[in-house]
Structure formats: C-alpha cells, structure tokens
Design a protein that fits this description.
kinase activity; metal-binding; elongated; Glucose Oxidase, domain 1; binds magnesium ion; Beta-Lactamase; alpha/beta; binds phosphoenolpyruvate; Enzyme I, Chain A, domain 2; cytoplasm; 755 residues; 8-stranded parallel sheet; GAF
C-alpha cells in the first residue's frame, strides 16, 4: 500500500527525473531508470513502459516489478488489454480493480496476476500515441489526481525519448503499417462543399517540449505571465482584423475564444502545475492533456467544440512561450495547401494565408464547429475523416472532395487528372457566373425571376453584391445564436440586425425569427431530449411558449430597423392561431417602442414560412393577414411525406419533384395570386437548377438560395422558355410517378436549358 502522494512527492520525483534526463546513458538505460524511479517514488509494486512499434503493436520496453524476461517479448495490440485500451482511447485510466475491467487481458509471462490496482497514461506526442506508462499495486487502492498527473508529465518526457529515436528507429516510428507511398483514400464526412487539390500541411503547432522540469518556479511563472500578455494582445489584433474585414460572426467566435483565454480555472490550473515544478510549457501541456482526458468521453457537441477551442488556445500559448507568434509559418507554406489537423479552432485557421489555403481536413469536428462555420464562410472545402494524421505525411499530394466527404492521398495520376479537370471546370463555371452577374435575371421568353439569398452569417453579406441577388429572402437568425455561448441580449441582437440592414443597403432582408429546436439546439437553452425532435418543441412553438424570448428578438429587429423597412417572417407556423399569437407579440413590441418614442420601421412586412402541411387547409383565413409567404420546402417535404430530413435512410426516399409536392406548390401559387400575397420558396430546392426550373414552371417568380447556387440557377433560367415548360408540366401533376425528375431533365435537354 503506498503512502500519500502529494505535490511535494511529485516535485521530488520530477527533480530526480530531470537528473536522469540530464545524465548520461542510452535511451533504454534512461527509460529503465525512469521506470525504477517511478516505482520507488510512487511506492508501486510495478511500473512498466510500453512503446508503440510498427503495425500498432505495444511492446513492453521496461519494467520494474514484472518478469524482466517479458521485456521486448510481451506485445499487445492497440485495443488489447487495459494497456491497449489506454492506447486506443488516448486517455488515462485509474482502476482499483483492474481484473474486473472489460478490457483486462492476462499475460502469464509477465507474472502480473496478483496486481489488483492499475493507473496508466498514454505517452502522447503531437496527436499520436507513442506508448503507455502504467503503475500497478497488489492491493486494491484508489489513485489520487496527483499520481495520474505526475504520470502524465513523465509520459511527456518519455515521448521525447521515443521521438528522439533513442528507443526505436525513426523509420519505424513514422511507419503507419501501410507502405508510405501508396495512394490511399479516406471516407469521411463532408463539412464544407467544394473541391480542392494541394499539398498537405500538417497543422501541428504543438512544439517539442525540451525541458519538463523547471529550475525556478517563480521565473517560470513570470515567463508564463509574459506569454499570456503577448497572446492576449495577439488575439486582440486578430479581433481587430476580423472587425476590419467585416467578418461578423467569426469575430463573435473569436470573442468567445478571448473569454476562454481569461478563464480563471484554466489559468489557475496551469499556474498550480508550474508551482509544482513544471516548466511553463509542460504545465500548459499537462493541463491540456488532463482536460482532454476528462472531457473526451463527453459526446455533447457543444462541450466538444469548446474543447477544440481550448486546444487552439493551448497551442497558441505554446507558440508564444516559444517566442513565435503563430502556428502558421508563411515561409514553409506551399502555394496550394491543404491543412490537415486533428482539430483546429477558428482563430488558427485565420492564421494561415487565405490566398494559399485550398482545403481543410480535420480528424475531429462537426459541421457546426466554429472552424467549419468560418471555413464555409470563406468558401474553403472541409472534410472530416478519422485517422488522417496517421496516413498523411507533410507535403503529400491531397484531394479534398467536400461535396462527398472523400479524401484522396497521393492520388494516382489518372485521379489527379480527373480532379484537375473537375476543379478547372468549377473555375470556368465560376467565371461564367461572374460574367452574368450583372445581366438581368429574366427567362429566355422574358419572364423576370427574382433571385434572393439565404444567409445566416454577416460574412455571407458580401455575396449579396457579388452575386447580383436582389435581396435576402431568408436570414436565418438562429445561426448567430448557435455560435455563441450564451443568449445574446437585446442590445447585442440590435447591433447585429442593424449591421445586416446597413450592409444590405437598399436590398430587402427578410429576417426569420429564431428557428431552433429539432436539430438546431442552442447549447445554453434547456429543453431536454425529445423522442421526435423534428415533430417537437421547436421554432415558433418555443417563441410562443416563451413570449419574452420572441419579444426580445422582435424588439431588437424593430430597434435595428427604426425608420427603415423591415420584413419579419415566422417559421413552423402550423395554424392561423399561431400566426396570430406571433403577430400579437410583434404588435405589443411596436406599441412599447412607440411609447418610448422609438421610430417605427418605414415599412413593416410580416409573413410566415409554410412548412407544416396543416396550414394548407387554412390558406383562405391566413393569406389576408400576410404580406408574404415563403415555402420552406426542406421541412414541407419532410412533413408532407413523413420522412425525416436528417435521416439518410429517409431523406432521399421521396422526391421534391414529385406530383404530390408539385400539386401543393401549384396550389400555393394559385392561392397567393388570388390574395395578392407575394410568394417565394427558400428551401434547398430553389438552389438546384433542375428543381428551380420546375418551380418556375409551377409559377414561382421568387427563389431564395444559398450564394453558390445563384450562378447555376441564373444560367439555367436565362436559357429557359417558361411558356413551353408550363405547357409541358400541365400534364404531369396528376400522374402516379414517384418522381418527375427524369421527365423534366429530358424537357430541359430537348429545349436547350443549361443546367
Ligand atoms: C426549410 O425548411 O425549407 C427552410 C428553409 O428552413 P430550414 O432549412 O432552416 O429549416
Ligand atoms: Mg425549415
């Protein structure tokens, strides 16, 4: 049974460790000394070190307490036994009854059966697991945090021994099991659309920590404080630059990030580790390892994204401690670069030279992670794929297919050719779209079609001018809410909406009120899990149940517009009574502001989305109350066919270009015309050229789409003869087809429509 292991024990152990590292001996000799030292100081019956060898095998390299004959003979696969478990999960484990752990594997040659307790940590370097360090005790005992943290610190030192090729040859360390030069393909998740080709730049800002144990804790604290100050001012510079560049939400993200940098808990844990005797670098790294270990099993996407932000910050702090200002070294960046990272924060992405950055490949992250939001706004294709760092070497040729979530590593020449052609075609098309930007949006037979944009970030706004769109047909106000860490107050909302109106200039903007819930949960909003979130408490339902929430948003919109035109749209309205309820709240806010002498909007237009089919049977009662109606075809399709839009098994099962959907749409066109209500469609359909053609054939004259769709849709409509299409479609509505896609495509081809 060991005595109490505390901060003083940890300091003593680390001081001896420093002596071992400063002394002479081969890598193996030093490792043996380290292992004996740990066993003695931690009063452990066993201390063993396993090192990762080629083919993902963990070999026992040194032990105190197990049979010495097992050294270099006992081997475990990653995932095998508790040691393999620690390696595969890359996180520490502390067990008071190791044999009861599901991964326990008994290896008789080591003679380890009498040991009940085990604490082990991964030996990590960069993002890779290089081995595992474990201690074992015969008795059943718990481990204190200091013990695990001290093991983690020592593991960092051992990682350096491995990396400096003192234990295994460098070629073996870098071997991944695959012959390095063979082409490979990774299937992952598409996170930001587009194709990119370039050379791999491994984003590995974690620097080698040369010294783990400090001579003088006070001096280290000073060094840490100085680095913190320079980092803060560098973040302030970035914020400033983001403001100047009109980056909008990325700026908000950076601000959240700045908050992290001032987080007391984080800073005090680092300072404590320095007081225990670590160098500033080792302390920052240890706190990060510990945070990662404690948070890595959490699946909550919000927490995981915060973890990524913290990693970003840690890396940045390490750069400052090393006297560098950013992880992106301009001189070594190729002209066409694809960044490869385990994870990355938004600020780190902005460190790289935008003019050379072609794509991003992440091992971790979700489409809603901040770095992806920023990448999409910058039009950088992103794919997430596990194991990327193990398979890619710096400057490997890479192709990122952000449309299909594919990555081609060192692609063969024919694949490179095919992609170069696809990339070139993409560029040619973009040029063509730019050329028609200022041409009228009118069909071949003279029917004007209004193209509007779907936006959700300030960074999207420059597209309004660049694409030639006539206005914003859908501003998804929930996106700024989703990237924040708390609910923005009225003032913050007012400022944001005012900037949107300012930047849109004389082009109209339709603000959709908060459409959260379902797949768009706000991290700071309680609500609890729902069995059927798409049919659950979402959008205007939340606003009507929590009127103060909706009123605050409406107030902010009215304040932002003061004296200028404003259009407000409510999402997910299922019945007229809901529209009336929402409208009442708007009227209350109008009254309240009038009483305060705030100028009303010069023109207030109020509308709703039609996404829930029940509303189709209340159109005569609804339409007289509306200024406009916009079809949310994404949700309307989902509810019409009872097919979850987020489930890959059902989302493509039914086609939006089917008789039932087109009948519904045609009815909406007719009813809105009768009541003189403007009608538009703002679901994904509007941005797909073939679907947009059908919509125009049905009678839609306003389509709202994401910015990249404007060029393709405008090209299509300028080549379209609407009269011919209407005639052709009149025979299609009542048929029994599953889909009209092929028929419509044939029509387009026969009539020279450019898709
Ligand atoms: C829709 O449902 O079609 C729509 C535009 O809204 P969202 O995709 O934001 O749900
Ligand atoms: Mg919707």
């Amino acid at each position: 049974m060991g005595g109490i292991f505390d901060g003083a024990s940890s300091r003593r152990l680390l001081a001896s460790l420093r002596d071992i590292m400063a002394g002479s001996g081969t890598g193996q000799e030093r490792l043996d000394k380290i292992v004996s030292l740990i066993a003695a100081e931690m009063k452990a019956d066993v201390c063993s070190c396993y090192v990762m060898r080629a083919g993902e095998v963990l070999e026992l390299f040194s032990t105190e307490g197990l049979n010495k004959t097992a050294v270099h003979n006992t081997r475990l696969r990653v995932g095998e036994g508790i040691v393999g478990y620690i390696a595969s999960h890359a996180r520490p484990v502390a067990l008071d009854n190791a044999p009861s752990h599901p991964s326990f594997a008994y290896r008789p040659e080591t003679g380890e059966d009498p040991f009940l307790s085990l604490a082990g940590v991964p030996i990590l370097r960069g993002s890779k697991v290089r081995g595992v360090l474990v201690i074992q005790h015969k008795d059943r005992r718990g481990y204190v945090e200091e013990e695990v943290e001290t093991l983690q610190t020592i593991a960092m030192v051992v990682a350096e021994l491995v990396a400096q090729s003192e234990l295994v040859s460098p070629s073996e360390v870098s071997t991944t099991g695959d012959p390095v030069l063979l082409p490979a393909r990774l299937s992952g998740t598409a996170m930001s659309a587009g194709l990119a080709m370039g050379l791999a730049v491994i984003h590995r800002p974690q620097l080698t920590i040369r010294q783990m144990v400090a001579e003088d804790a006070e001096a280290e604290l000073e060094r840490f404080n100085a680095a913190l100050i320079t980092m803060h001012s560098a973040i302030d510079d970035l914020l400033e630059a983001a403001t100047l560049a009109g980056l909008g939400e990325p700026r908000d993200i950076l601000e959240t990030y700045r908050m992290f940098a001032e987080d007391r808990g984080w800073l005090s844990r680092i300072r404590e580790a320095i007081r225990v005797g670590l160098t500033a670098e080792a302390a920052v790294q240890q706190v990060q390892n510990d945070t990662r270990a404690r948070m890595s099993h959490l699946t909550d996407p919000y927490i995981r994204e915060r973890l990524l932000d913290l990693e970003d910050l840690t890396n940045r702090l390490m750069q400052h401690l090393a006297g560098k200002t950013s992880g992106a070294d301009g001189a070594t960046q190729p002209d066409d670069m694809i960044l490869v990272a385990r994870s990355m924060g938004p600020a780190e992405l902005l460190d790289y030279d935008r003019s050379r950055l072609r794509g991003l490949l992440l091992e971790e992250g979700t489409p809603s992670s901040h770095v992806c939001i920023v990448a999409r706004a910058l039009n950088i294709p992103v794919v997430q794929a596990a194991d990327a760092l193990n398979r890619i070497e710096p400057l490997d040729q890479l192709i990122i297919d952000g449309d299909h979530g594919q990555v081609f590593i060192r692609p063969a020449e024919d694949i490179q050719m095919a992609f170069s052609e696809a990339v070139a075609l993409q560029h040619r098309k973009e040029q063509m779209y730019a050329e028609i930007r200022n041409q009228p949006s009118v069909t071949r037979d003279g029917v004007p079609i209004s193209i509007q944009l779907n936006c959700g970030l300030l960074i999207d706004l420059p597209h309004l001018k660049a694409s030639g769109a006539e206005g914003i047909g859908l501003y998804r106000t929930e996106i700024p809410f989703m990237v924040r860490s708390s609910y923005p107050d009225v003032q913050a909302q007012t400022e944001l909406y005012a900037r949107i109106i300012d930047e849109a200039g004389d082009k109209p903007v339709i603000f959709r009120t908060l459409d959260v819930g379902g797949d768009k949960m706000l991290p700071y909003m309680s609500g609890g899990a729902e069995e059927n979130p798409a049919l659950g408490w979402r959008a205007v339902r939340i606003g009507l149940d929590h009127p103060s929430l909706l009123r605050q948003q409406l107030r902010a919109l009215l304040l932002a517009a003061a004296g200028r035109p404003l259009s407000v749209m409510f999402p997910m309205i299922a019945e007229v009574a809901e529209f009336d309820g929402a409208r009442r709240l708007l009227d209350l806010e109008l009254k309240r502001l009038a009483a305060q002498g705030v100028e009303a909007p010069s023109r207030l237009r109020v509308g709703t989305m039609i996404e829930v089919p029940s509303l189709l049977w209340q159109l005569p009662a609804l339409l007289p109350k509306l200024d406009f109606l916009s079809v949310g075809s994404n949700d309307l399709t989902q509810y019409l066919f009872a097919a979850d839009r987020g489930n890959p098994r059902t989302s493509t099962r039914y086609d939006s270009l089917s008789p039932p959907m087109l009948c519904v749409l045609r009815r909406l066109v007719d009813e809105c015309a009768k009541h003189r209500v403007s009608l538009s469609l703002c679901g994904e359909m509007a941005g797909r050229p073939l679907d947009a053609m059908a919509l125009i054939g049905v009678g839609f004259r306003t389509l709202s789409m994401s910015p990249p769709s404007v060029g393709p849709v405008k090209t299509m409509l300028r080549s379209l003869d609407v009269a011919a299409l209407r005639g052709y479609m009149s025979g299609l509505y009542l048929g029994g087809d599953h889909s009209l896609r092929d028929k419509l495509k044939s029509f387009g081809k026969d009539h020279g429509v450019i898709f």
